[in-house]
Amino acid sequence: MNSTIKLIIAVAIPLAVGALSGFATARGVTDWYPTLAKPSFNPPAWVFGPVWTVLYIMMGVAAFLVWRAGLDLNGVRIALTVFAVQLALNGIWSILFFGMQAPGWALVEIVLLWIAIGATVVFFWRVAPLSGALLLPYWGWVSFATVLNAALWWLNRSTIS
């Protein structure tokens, strides 16, 4: 498989997870989320779509850089497996937070996601340092999202799980 096809596949997978997450969030974003008390640092709603789109593209490029090093390398297989785990956790968060309207459980899950992203950064960096660096903005955004999730849970804890 040539590099262009690998790049397209590698970028399409995180974007697909993002799209599927969008289905899980669609109703909660319009019906439930606006009713929550929000912290002063809650970004405007329009910020999330563009930020996540860029981050999903960067994740895909990072995965491509690791993949092109060769699946025959044990380090590559491990790195991509850890990447798949964090990507699954990324999608599950949306289901928990918006789909199930359970910020408490989503908070527990996003901490696991944060750890998985950190592990992915380490494993990607070992294969191709640029791939690890490309994940740092994602890790930073999820760090912010973790604090935001905690604040939303705390501010609304008497009315939600």
In short:
With 161 residues, the protein is an all-alpha fold. The chain has 6 helices and no strands.
How are the SSEs ordered, and which strands pair?
Blueprint: H1 3-32, H2 45-67, H3 74-99, H4 103-127, H5 129-134, H6 136-156
Features:
161 residues; mainly alpha
- Compute the number of helices: 6
What is the residue-averaged pLDDT?
95
Distance between the termini: 47 Å
Strand content: under 5%
Helix % is over 70%
- Assembly form of the protein: single chain
Q: How many β-strand runs?
A: 0
User: Which structural category do the helix and sheet elements fall into?
Assistant: mainly alpha
* Structural shape: elongated
| Topology as a string of helices (H) and strands (E) | HHHHHH
Give the radius of gyration.
16 Å
Q: Summarize the main sheet.
A: none
Low-confidence stretches: none
